[in-house]
Amino acid sequence: MSKNAASPRDVLTPDSLALLQGIADAGSFAAAARAAGMVPSALGYRVRQIEDALDVLLFDRSSRQASLTAAGHELLREGARLLAEVDAIANRVRRVATGWESQFTLALDGIIDRTTVFELCEQFFALKPPTRLRLRDETLSGTLAALTSGQADLALGVVAEASTVASLQTRPLGCLRFVFAVAPHHALAHAPEPLSDDLLRQHRAVAVADSVPRGGGLTLGLLAGQEVLTVPGMPDKLQAQLRGLGAGFLPECLARPYIDSGRLVEKRVERAERVVHVAYAWRRTPEAARGKALQWWLQQLEGKVTRQALVGERIAPSR
Q1: Any bridge partners for residue 172, and if so which?
Q2: Which of 237, 244, 241 is nearest to 220 (CA)?
Q3: Which of 43, 131, 155, 248 is buried deepest, with most CB atoms within 10 A?
């Protein structure tokens, strides 16, 4: 690299990253130049500047198509993360100025009752806040990961151990009892109880995929060597078990209507009853520095009835 060559910090700007993404999307330098209102030579010069500064080739120019090299893919992947962080900084600045977050994201585990969530959203919108709400479907440790990675502001239904994360604050949300259930036409529906692990291992289990983006994530209720059908969410798990595609544990609040109607059969198993304690969590900040949207949602969660409704708990009548 020459003494006058630009440094990576000089060339890795939001505009440059958007330009590179435009080339990747268009599939050729000529098409990207037309879309950007540039002459192809100027576009090519910009790309060469970036490549010289990084000392890598970002595009394979051996054909008419502009295909990304492995280095190019990595740059755009990391670039998207950096741009997201820039947006997060801008959001925080606006929040400090107005008191309201420009966007507030809720990470919702599949066990959270969506009807209750939408009722809360309705109440929130009645305030006419300037905040845009975003809901994220997550599962198991992915719910917590969405919060710790900065992709969510509040996580409901955290089943992983979050109390050890110094940057988070957590409160109990409730507990869920899980029941083992199968379709009436499933082979296990008429098996003698309690069902042993050896017997369960002979039948396909239905499991919900952990939504954490990296690593193995959490797996609950599966046995070593057992055939598994993995589905993306709890509603899909319910449908798979209703069809007899497999067996497994379901939150009682979700399964009970189908058990009562005969569409599922609850079976006792030898292993201990599964009760999962879940929490809600948010990033640790001084109370005075919290945005108004976070304050509102935390205030709603102080209500016991709201917490019970979110996890589908049956509310006992008061005496």
Answers
A1: 279
A2: 237
A3: 155
Spatial contact of 108 and 235, defined as CB atoms under 8 Å apart: no
Is 217 a residue whose pLDDT tops 50?
no
Chain mean pLDDT for the chain? 85
Cβ partners under 8 Å of residue 103, min gap 6: 91, 131, 132, 133, 134
d(CA 79, CA 64) in angstroms, rounded, equals 25
Name residue 219's amino acid: T
Cβ neighbours of 288 (radius 10 Å)? 5
User: Angle at CA 120, nearest 5°, toward 129 and 145?
Assistant: 90
